[in-house]
Design brief:
Organism: Esox lucius (Northern pike)
Number of strands: 12
Family: Belongs to the chloride channel (TC 2.A.49) family.
Radius of gyration: 32 Å
Subcellular location: Endosome membrane; Membrane
GO molecular function, one term: voltage-gated chloride channel activity
Oligomer: single chain
Distance between the termini: 35 Å
Membrane topology: Multi-pass membrane protein
Structural class: mainly alpha
Shape: elongated
Strand order of the largest sheet: 3-5-6-9
């Protein structure tokens, strides 16, 4: 490519054409006595400098919205040119085939890099989480589990204990028991947590401020057409990957699954820059980002199909059929890559593999639905509490000290989490234990049942038994853990570190579900003669599986917070391998959504979009107010008239003054100020670049030069001095227009489904005003009794 980023072959062709034209004009000039420059700028040969492309045309400024229709049109023109050229030679045909396959190459690269990063993150998180409690003497980079796997002295009964793994107190003092060892381990646990969180927030604050948070609200906004420069950049990718490991390892109530979507989209944006097909077209770029989001969920949960559905249901704004295929391919490659790395060490792709041996019964739908109600109420409580805290963070001095806030929350979390074994361990390990069924080989407190010595059943079919002291101890510890997780997650999500919400929400639901499951199990054992148990739970039978209740509760709470339905159920059964339990998962997910929607339609991501004032038009919102386009358009009666350009009477100086005095993204072009008959619409950036390029390349263009947007320039204008400037090529001759009596319900639908930046309001072809996306959002906020100025856009 040349210095301007154009293909070298195209540059050579353009130079050859220019030389040929020059010699032809010279030969013509010699016969008429005119100089070459006079012939070029003379009558009948006025140049339209946009016949040749120049750099940066049709790109967008930061914090602006793309024009979906324009991007689609540009891609169609590009594809048409490639198709035409491919008939000229075999080389052009090969180039056309390479262009067609570039999309699949990008998906392959995204899947491989996303899967690799996810595997590295998983391995690093396991090691650093265990580092807070101890170290492996045989290899310091081994986690606790890996250290004991490699030991020849590990027994089955004490498989979590091995000589090679030592806690910090035992390593430093030689004593692993007693109050002194407990206090030392407690102190070092808090110290490691504070160190990890401090490093995470410092790296984010200094190097990549956009690496904080979940990233999904911003990804949704970007996919809807908004430009946020740097949010998907290389530094953001690097810092988010590193700080995600640190944040999760610190023990805070957050997960890595949401930020992995952000990481995957950064990978997608990185590879888009390698192909002009995507780097120069923001609409095509967003198709790649939608597929990257699917790959992110695929590696986050080991759920490739769920990732595709998540991208379709939750984050994508424009999702054509070919994007569905490519999303599936990217998710597949990412899952294969993660499986090759095998970070969980179980030769499985799923994060929480379960294997239940008892079917569910119709009577159990009642507690499943109750868990759905709990999930909806928890989702409502969390969204309102978290949004209130984040709003307070934005409007008070708290927002000026993000490092201090992270350190304080981490300290409180570590101090309260260490005494309880269910909050001390990582959240993923906690969920895995809550999902597990109690077999004969389980050593967890949750499986401390009173065994019948005369039991002679096969291992996989253990009957319901009375709870032992370990189960009751675990129940009150889980109850404390439930309260702790509910409260601390509200204050953790939204801090200036990478923070996901999927795993903490699932943990809350899994704890509540396991408690309910144990309660139902004991009721069935002690009261098997009750009418609700008599038909399906006989004495000595294995009737109730508490782990299934934990799985259903996790789905209910995650659905209550995010309002996902179809993708949630698919993710849950891919996550656990529990294909047989789709109906309980569906019942809980639908119930939680109904209950949560009764208190508010917005999920946590939509609520954060509103809080941050992003210009996002949710396709799920309904606009039912009876207002008209004339009520929303600008200018209003008290405002100055609309800034317009005329097709043949505006000078370069007038255009530059208009650009300098206003901050509009574009200007309507009319026949004259008297008639105001609409001709088209020109973008501000295109206008600025066109004038700048014309001043550099065309002789005679000065401030008094007249700008023409017409097809033909008058002969008198071409002969006069200074030379006129023809900018017909940058004029959009088919801007979207509505009449002043169009209902706003229709206008809102047009903006949503066509992704418009603005539409012009006319009456009988006469321009009356303009409606932008910002105007639509402000009007919708005003109709919902909200502050219209809360839409900040930056």
């Amino acid at each position: 490519t040349d210095s301007n980023g154009f293909p070298a072959s195209l540059t050579i062709v353009c130079v050859c054409v220019r030389v040929l034209i020059f010699f032809c004009l010279c030969s013509g000039a010699s016969s008429t006595g005119a100089t070459p420059s006079e012939e070029i700028n003379g009558p009948g040969n006025l140049m339209d400098f946009l016949d040749e492309p120049f750099p940066d045309v049709s790109t967008y400024e930061d914090f602006h919205t793309i024009d979906w229709l324009r991007e689609k049109s540009r891609d169609t023109d590009r594809h048409r040119k490639i198709t035409t050229k491919s008939r000229e030679s075999y080389w052009e045909l090969i180039k056309g085939l390479l262009d067609a396959w570039s999309g699949w190459v990008v998906m392959l690269l995204i899947g491989m890099l996303t899967g690799t990063l996810a595997g590295v993150i998983d391995l690093a998180v396991d090691w650093m989480t265990d580092l807070k409690e101890g170290v492996c003497l045989s290899a310091f980079y081994y986690s606790h589990e890996q250290c004991c796997w490699t030991s020849n002295e590990t027994t089955f009964d004490d498989r979590d204990k091995c000589p090679q793994w030592q806690k910090w107190a035992e390593l430093m003092t030689g004593n692993s028991e007693g109050a002194g060892a407990y206090v030392l381990n407690y102190f070092l646990y808090i110290s490691w947590a504070l160190l990890f969180s401090f490093l995470a927030v410092s790296l984010v604050r200094v190097f990549a401020p956009y690496a904080c948070g979940s990233g999904i609200p911003e990804i949704k906004t970007i996919l809807s057409g908004f430009i946020i420069r740097g949010y998907l950049g290389k530094w953001t990718l690097l810092i988010k990957t590193v700080t995600l490991v640190l944040a999760v390892s610190s023990g805070l109530s957050l997960g890595k699954e949401g930020p992995l979507v952000h990481v995957a989209c950064c990978c997608g944006n990185l590879f888009c820059s390698l192909f002009s097909k995507y780097s120069k077209n923001e609409g095509k770029r967003r198709e790649v980002l939608s597929a990257a989001a699917a790959a992110g969920v695929s590696v986050a949960f080991g759920a490739p199909i769920g990732g595709v559905l998540f991208s379709l249901e939750e984050v994508s704004y424009y999702f054509p059929l070919k994007t569905l295929w490519r999303s599936f391919f990217a998710a597949l490659v990412a899952a294969f890559t993660l499986r090759a790395i095998n970070p969980f060490g179980n030769s499985r792709l799923v994060l929480f593999y379960v294997e239940y041996h008892t079917p569910w019964y119709m009577a159990e739908l009642v507690p499943f639905i109750l868990l759905g109600v709990f999930g909806g109420l928890w989702g409502t409580l969390f969204i309102r509490g978290n949004i209130a805290w984040c709003r307070r963070r934005k409007t008070t001095l708290l927002g000026k000290y993000p490092v201090l806030e992270v350190i304080v929350i981490t300290g409180i979390t570590a101090v309260l989490a260490f005494p309880n074994p269910y909050t001390r361990r990582s959240t993923s390990e906690l969920i895995s234990e809550l999902f597990n069924d109690c077999g004969a080989l389980e050593s967890s407190q949750l499986c401390d049942y009173v065994n019948n010595p005369n039991m002679s059943r096969r291992v996989d079919d253990i009957p319901d038994r009375p709870a032992g002291p370990g189960v009751y101890t675990a129940l009150w510890q889980l109850a404390l853990a439930l309260v702790f997780k509910i409260v601390i997650t509200i204050f953790t999500f939204g801090m200036k570190i990478p923070s996901g919400l999927f795993i903490p929400s699932m943990a809350v639901g899994a704890i509540a579900g396991r408690i309910v499951g144990i309660a139902v199990e004991q009721m069935a054992y002690h009261h098997h003669d009750w009418i609700i148990f008599k038909n399906w739970c006989r004495p000595g039978a294995d009737c109730v599986t508490p782990g299934l209740y934990a799985m259903v509760g996790a789905a209910a709470c995650l659905g209550g917070v995010t309002r996902m339905t179809v993708s949630l159920v698919v993710i849950m059964f891919e996550l656990t391998g529990g294909l047989e339990y789709i109906v309980p998962l569906m019942a809980a997910a639908v119930t939680s959504k109904w209950v949560a929607d009764a208190f508010g339609k917005e999920g946590i991501y939509e609520s954060h979009i509103q809080l941050n004032g992003y210009p996002y038009l949710d396709v799920r919102d309904e606009f039912t107010h009876r207002t008209l386009a004339t009520d929303v358009m600008r200018p209003r009666r008290s405002e100055p008239p609309l800034a317009v350009l005329t097709q043949d009477s505006t000078t370069v100086e007038d255009v530059e003054a208009l650009i300098k005095d206003t901050d509009y993204n574009g200007f309507p072009v009319v026949v004259s100020r008297e008639s105001e008959r609409l001709i088209g619409f020109v973008q501000r950036r295109d206008l600025t670049l066109a004038i700048k390029t014309a001043r550099q390349k065309q002789d005679g263009v000065v401030s008094s030069s007249v700008v023409y947007f017409t097809e033909d320039t008058p002969q008198a204008a071409e002969a006069c001095d200074p030379q006129p400037l023809k900018l017909r090529r940058i004029l959009n001759l088919s801007p979207f227009t509505v009449t002043d009596h169009t209902p706003m319900e229709t206008v809102v639908d047009i903006f949503r489904k066509l992704g418009l930046r603005q539409c012009l309001v006319t009456r009988s072809g006469r321009l009356l005003g303009i409606i932008t996306k910002k105007d639509v959002l402000r009007h919708m906020a005003q109709m919902m009794n909200q502050d219209p100025e809360s839409i900040m856009f930056n």
